[in-house]
Structures are given as C-alpha cells and as structure tokens.
Amino acid sequence: MKQHILYPALFALILATSTWASEEHDHGHDERPAHNESHTDDHEHGHDGHEDEHAEDSHADEHSGHGHDDEHDEHGEESGVELTPEQMATAGIVVTPLRQQTLHEVVNAPGEVTFDAYRASKITPRISAQIVARHARLSDHVKRGQLLVTLSSVAMAEAQGELLISNREWQRVKKLGRKVVSAKRYAEAQINRQQAEARVLAYGMSKPQVAALLSTDDPAQAIGRFDLYALQSGTVTSDDFILGELIEPGRVLLDISDESALWVEARLTPEDAHRIDKNAGATVRIGNTSLRGKVVQIHHAVDEITRTQAVRIAIKNPGDRLHPGMFVDVSIDAERQGEALALPLDAVVRSADGDWQVFVEEEPGHFETQEVTVLRSVGGQLVISGIAPGTRVVTEGTFFVQSELAKGGFEIHNH
C-alpha cells in the first residue's frame, strides 16, 4: 500500500523538476541578447567617446595652428623698423613713390668730383698790402657780404687822403654854387671827387667803408686800412695766409665754394662721348651711395695723353657726402630702352633667405620689408615686379634701414 502511494509521488516530483529546469534554460537563453545589447551599447558609447576625443584633438590642433598663425603675425610685425625724423635726416633716407621710368642703355666711365666753378669764388687783394686781421678760417660757413680779412696798404692810405681832400673841396664848391664859382672850377672839383672815390673802390674799399670814411671828414682816418668781404655764401675751402704777411695783387687768400652742388668730370672715349646728349641723366656712385645728376657740358677737345673726352655732370650734394678730389663711378644714360617699374641699384637688397626685397614706408617713419622680383638691370636701374605702382619705397639710405633692422635682431620676411 505504501509503495503504491510512494511511486506516483516520486514520479510527480521528477516531472516537476524537469519542467523547472527547462524553464530555467529558456530564461537563460533569452537573457543572452540582453547581454549582447549591453555590450553593443558599451562599444557604441566607447566609439562616441573616441570621436569626442578626436574632436577635442582636432580643436586642439586648430587652436595650435591658430597660435602658430598668431606667432607668425607677431613675427611679421617684427619685420618693421621705426625711425625718427632726425634719424632719417642724418642717414639721408629718401622715400619715393614707385613709378614707371624711362630706361636707357648706359655708358660707364670713371670720374672725379670737382667744385662747381659757377658756385665758387676767390678772395684776393687788388693792391700790395699787409694782412692785419683774419675773420674767417678753413671750413667756416660764410654768408655773402661777411667780413673775411682786414688789410693795410700805403697806396690805400694815399688814395683815402686824396678822397678826403677832394671831397672837402667839392663840398665847398657845391655850397658856393655855379653863380659864384666858374664852370671850370665846379667841373674840376666834381670830377676830382668822383675819381678819388673810384680809386679807393678799385683798390678794395666797399661803398659802406667809403661812406664811413667821408662822414668823419678827418684826414687822420686815412690810415690805409680796408676789408675784404665774401662775394657769395659757401664754405671756406682754403685760407693760405698768415697775419702780418705782405701780399701782392692777385694773391688768393681764401677760396669759397658752395658745395651743395658739385661737378663730376667723367672721362669717356670719343666714341662713347658721341652717344651722350646734353641734359642726359647720370648716376654717380661712391661706395654704397648713389646720386642722380645730369650732363651739363661735353668738352670738344680730346686729352692728348689719355685720348679721352671729358663730360661734365652737375649733381646735388645732400648731406655734404661728396667732396672735390673724390674718385667716383659714373653711368650716363645713352639709348632709350622703353619704360618699366625700376629702382636704383642700392634700393634693392638681399633678405636673410637670399630673396630680393625693398623697404616700404607703411606710415611716416615706419618701414616694412617687401620681396620683389628683379627682372633685369638697365642703366644702373633694376627693373622689378611684385609690387604695386605708387608704393612708397626707400630709394636712398637703404643700407641704414637694413642695419637698423639687423640691430633689432629681426628676421626679414615677405609680406
């Protein structure tokens, strides 16, 4: 009886256990996709995080690149040079708007700086005299009419005495009038007075000196002293005399020259001189300095020794950079070669990386570098491109600007 009850109960227990195990298996299988979804979500979330990090890196790169540009801009600003008006004047810096220029073939020749004879004068006595006082010295700048030398002369003393006597007689006769004195005496007194004054003027007295002497009406003032004055404004370039020295007529005591303008005597072969026209432009170079001038005279005679022909060039001398006796190189314009943007040779220099460049005035006293392309050289000029017409470019004093740039430790960049 007990066995009949036990077997059915055991069978029911086994069946229940089997059913529960099957459900557990199915439930476990159903949860696997959930696990996979969780993994996928984690992977996708990780990928998104990677993209975020990449975006941040890109932003960092952009920021870094932006920083580099800023640094480049700041570095570009450092390529400038600031100069005061005093510095520019001292260095002889000239800024010129870039324009189309007529180009010429050139004739090159050696030359020598000389005085402009039309701007020079010599101070010399007209009679024998002794030097009493010096009022100017070598290298002094004098004005027209300035007192230079005081002289004393026996001949002048005699002439001064005659002037005082003749003047006194003339004043007496003139006061009496024509009705009292004869016409002959009146004329003689007048002529003697005029001749006496003309003599002292010819000997070297000035009209103000004559007037001062006559105003005294004192024969004791006829001591023979007189002064020599500057005939022009300029610089005393020689003063070959000493105090107390006895000098003869025609002896040169001082040379005065206006050196703001000079001549350059270029020596050319007759064939080259034939290619040159009067008023042709010319470039005069000495060291790093270039100056423009023009042909004013062409000599017709050929030198017997050198077999060359002289061409005279008039040139301005800003800053007193040239002096007579200096040897220079000259380039004179000959045949025309058309028009182009061109600058003097000294206006275009090499940058640190070997490129050609010029200095551009962006604002008064502020200069920036700008690279250009040199196309060719014609007549002492460089034909360039890569820069707009009208740009204000340093044409003289370029090396000073470049040295100031180097002093600041700046590297030259293109704009």
UniProtKB/TrEMBL annotation:
Keyword Transport attributed: yes
Basic and acidic residues compositional bias, start-end: 24-78
Start and end residues of each stretch annotated as Disordered: 24-82
GO BP terms in the entry: copper ion export; plasma membrane copper ion transport
Limits of the CusB-like beta-barrel domain: 262-335
Multidrug resistance protein MdtA-like C-terminal permuted SH3 domain: residues covered: 340-397
Any one of the GO CC terms: membrane
Pfam families, sorted: Beta-barrel_RND_2, BSH_CzcB, RND-MFP_C
GO molecular function, one term: transmembrane transporter activity
InterPro entries for this protein: Beta-barrel_RND_2, BSH_CzcB-like, MdtA-like_C, MFP_Cation_Efflux, RND_pump_MFP
SUPFAM superfamilies: HlyD-like secretion proteins (SSF111369)
Keywords, in A-Z order: Transport
Signal sequence region: none
Residue ranges constituting the CzcB-like barrel-sandwich hybrid domain according to the UniProt record: 121-258
Family, similarity comment: Belongs to the membrane fusion protein (MFP) (TC 8.A.1) family.
Protein name: Probable Co/Zn/Cd efflux system membrane fusion protein
